[in-house]
Amino acid sequence: GQQVMQIPQYQHVQEGEDFTTYCNSSTTLSNIQWYKQRPGGHPVFLIQLVKSGEVKKQKRLTFQFGEAKKNSSLHITATQTTDVGTYFCNGGYNKLIFGAGTRLAVHP
Amino acid sequence: NAGVTQTPKFQVLKTGQSMTLQCAQDMNHNSMYWYRQDPGMGLRLIYYSASEGTTDKGEVPNGYNVSRLNKREFSLRLESAAPSQTSVYFCASSELRGSQFTQYFGPGTRLTVL
């Protein structure tokens, strides 16, 4: 069945450093979504990418969907302590398969 | 507009007890979902309902039943709780406008089975 892998599992950075997490699927995805979950909180939808090669930006966050629609990345420029949390990717519409997430720690 | 609400927030059960987790959304969404999240892990889909009156199994349906009571409400039942079902349970709903998909999560129910 479809699998979604995220790397790295965990990363800690100094505030101001950049951060990137990668999402890789074993099959072609119709779309990819990214979510953020703060410690003790619930996942919050960040963005959806649909088109091959699509790039979207939200302030310091840049999301990219691969040309083959099997991988995606989330890049945060100049991390802040408010970026702490776990970032999940997910593909599909109904029978959604989440990656295990990348936990980001930011040290001030 | 409360979004997705879940009750209870916390629950402790003994092995073999049953309980129902309640979920409601006020966004008029067709699709609703139940996930479980174990410590340090990602989300695993238990069941989903693409529309009122339909339900389908997700990745980990064993030990659970669901009811899509109406468009607003989607409940998850544990008939005979087991310690392996200790987890945080999230309900979610989603909307699809064209190809634009957005999923909204409830605050979660933290369940401990002793």
Short descriptors:
heterodimer, A: 108 residues, mainly beta, six-stranded mixed sheet, five-stranded antiparallel sheet, B: 114 residues, seven-stranded mixed sheet, four-stranded antiparallel sheet, 0% helix, globular
What does this structure look like?
The complex is a heterodimer of chains A (108) and B (114). Chain A has 108 residues and is an all-beta fold. In chain A, 0% of the residues lie in helices and 54% in strands. Chain A has no helices and 11 strands. Chain A is globular, with a radius of gyration of 13 Å. The termini of chain A are far apart. The mean pLDDT of chain A is 93. Chain B is mainly beta. The mean pLDDT of chain B is 94. Classes of the chains: A mainly beta (108), B mainly beta (114).
Radius of gyration of chain A: 13 Å
Question: Which class best fits the helix and strand makeup of chain A?
Answer: mainly beta
Rounded radius of gyration of chain B (Å): 14 Å
Shape of chain A: globular
Largest sheet geometry of chain A: 6 strands, mixed
Low-confidence stretches of chain B: none
Strand content of chain B: over 45%
The count of helical stretches of chain B stands at: 0
